[in-house]
Amino acid sequence: MKTSAAIAFTLFGIATANPIVTSSKYKRADLAGLDFEIINLARNLESLELNYWNQGLANFTDDDFNNAGYQGFRQYLELFRDQEIAHFTVLNEAAGGGFKNCTYKFPVTTPYDLLSVGQVVTTVGEGAFIGGVANLTSSPARLTGASILGNEARQNSLLRQYLGLDYFNAVNFDTPLTASQAYSLAEPFLDCPSSNPPINFHLIPPLMANFTSGATPHSAGDEITVMWESSKVYLGNDVHITFLADMYSIPCPLTQSGDGMGTVTLPKGINGTSVLVATNFNGGGPIPDKQNFAIGYVVVA
Ligand SMILES: *[C@@H]1O[C@H](CO)[C@@H](O)[C@H](O)[C@H]1NC(C)=O
Ligand SMILES: *[C@@H]1O[C@H](CO)[C@@H](O)[C@H](O)[C@H]1NC(C)=O
Ligand SMILES: *[C@@H]1O[C@H](CO)[C@@H](O)[C@H](O)[C@H]1NC(C)=O
Ligand SMILES: *[C@@H]1O[C@H](CO)[C@@H](O)[C@H](O)[C@H]1NC(C)=O
Ligand SMILES: *[C@@H]1O[C@H](CO)[C@@H](O)[C@H](O)[C@H]1NC(C)=O
């Protein structure tokens, strides 16, 4: 027993001395086509997160968090910042560098805002990596993506726990996002220099969604009011609201109550932060890019 434990320990030592993420296989030359596009999106999301936590550190002191009821939170902010430096560095190297920080603007003025927007940002970040891993063909890139998504999920759980939300987020399986869905949810915060490689995914217009009955944690049957800019959103025929969740998605009828406005009822089986898509798609797989007419989210529990 002792010997095999010692061998295992030694092997582990060797493995960590040669982290696979810096493998020479995982260089831009090997990341072509969709692999490059996904990793380029991923580094943009990581850079957004890094700048988010950095702004939070610049904006709020220990006392600010403690007085807002988030005892000892700032040490985790420093940890998250360090984790995002690591994630960004690896992805930026993989994508061949050539990246400058964008201008990042967030709707944050209080410690509560920082945690609650951060909770959404990490939900989207994790969903982007789950969707990305499904489509990456480079094995080292998949491995790196998978090892980052677990870390994002733990950041998300800690934020949810501090906020008094369900810290498991989704029910049994976390929610994958397509690259276009993740990009579209992040894009309102981003203003990137034209020298950066562009993010080549489909931009879906925003859908604002707010509960107009019940209270957090919400239950099936609670009403959600949704709003969209009607000049930017094509609603197609048979439009409904699909709640992205788990391994499946749940389509629900949309009652249009005015121009760019409607209501939908929370279905059963949705928990955590749910991404909502206005669509006419009725298939089983991810919603095809052009059939995502508008995208937003609600915090259910
Ligand atoms: C982007 O800005 C952050 C500070 O928020 C800094 O730590 C990081 O090094 C910058 N990244 C690049 C690529 O300049
Ligand atoms: C930090 O404060 C600036 C200035 O008030 C604000 O614009 C920005 O959104 C804040 N960001 C975060 C993440 O706290
Ligand atoms: C990823 O794969 C799914 C099919 O599994 C597809 O619908 C989606 O659009 C693909 N592309 C991206 C970039 O997410
Ligand atoms: C409505 O939902 C949006 C996100 O879709 C959020 O930014 C906003 O704060 C919510 N407004 C209210 C009044 O809850
Ligand atoms: C969310 O999950 C919690 C348990 O983790 C459960 O008690 C609650 O009923 C769920 N909410 C909904 C709306 O399904």
From TrEMBL:
It comes from the Eukaryota. Coiled coil: none annotated. Pfam families: Ferritin_2. Keywords: Signal. InterPro entries: Rds1. Residues 1-17 form the signal peptide. This is Rds1p. It comes from Kwoniella shivajii.
